[in-house]
């Protein structure tokens, strides 16, 4: 399994508030999809965003493909949500195509930036990171974003250790 490629990860211990809830939500979502598939009902795959299905609240404000550069193959989409009632951003990295349902290293990271205008990101506090060997998606991860920028990163690897990644390269969605 590959580790997340952020130099700002720091210690992950204790930085996953509600990780049991995220794990539980993931298991319930997968179990539900498998039960529907077994009953013959057609289930839409991860092509469109479903905030409640992935544990994010609010409105989807952006979605970015993670594309393998040498082949142009899309491995996943990272979805960014904004909840104006709480001031939190939330992100998930959802696999698509031939990798959907295949366990590979998948990650998503949200950083809270000190800045209130797009550009450089001085990270405030600990990054919110979910990184593991997942079959469907990584996340959700949340950071407070009211009044300042956030930084978003995601990686998806295939079975042959080929990488597709996304990095906002600084603060945005301020």
Quickly list its features.
single chain; 174 residues; mainly beta; four-stranded antiparallel beta sheet; 8 strands; disordered N terminus
Q: How would you describe this protein?
A:
It is built from 2 helices and 8 strands. It is mainly beta. The protein is globular. It has helices spanning 19-38, 51-54; strands spanning 59-67, 74-83, 88-95, 104-113, 123-134, 137-144, 150-157, 163-167. The N and C termini lie far apart (33 Å). Mean pLDDT is 79; it is low at 1-49. The strands form 2 sheets. Strands 1-2-3-6 form a 4-stranded antiparallel beta sheet, with no helix packed on it. A 4-stranded antiparallel beta sheet has the order 5-4-7-8, with no helix packed on it.
In short:
This protein is mainly beta and 174 residues long. The chain has helices spanning 19-38, 51-54; strands spanning 59-67, 74-83, 88-95, 104-113, 123-134, 137-144, 150-157, 163-167. Helices cover 14% and strands 40% of the residues.
List the helices and strands and how they pair.
Elements: H1 19-38, H2 51-54, E1 59-67, E2 74-83, E3 88-95, E4 104-113, E5 123-134, E6 137-144, E7 150-157, E8 163-167
Antiparallel strand pairs: 1-2, 2-3, 3-6, 4-5, 4-7, 7-8
Strand order of the largest sheet: 1-2-3-6
What is the number of beta strands? 8
Low-confidence parts lasting 5 or more residues at pLDDT below 50?
A: 1-49
Provide the gyration radius in Å. 16 Å
Sheet-strand content, in percent, reads 35-45%
Q: For the record, give the distance between the C-alpha atoms at the N and C termini, rounded to a whole number.
A: 33 Å
Q: What is the global morphology?
A: globular
Structure annotation, total helices? 2
| Helix percentage | 10-25%
Q: pLDDT average, as an integer?
A: 79
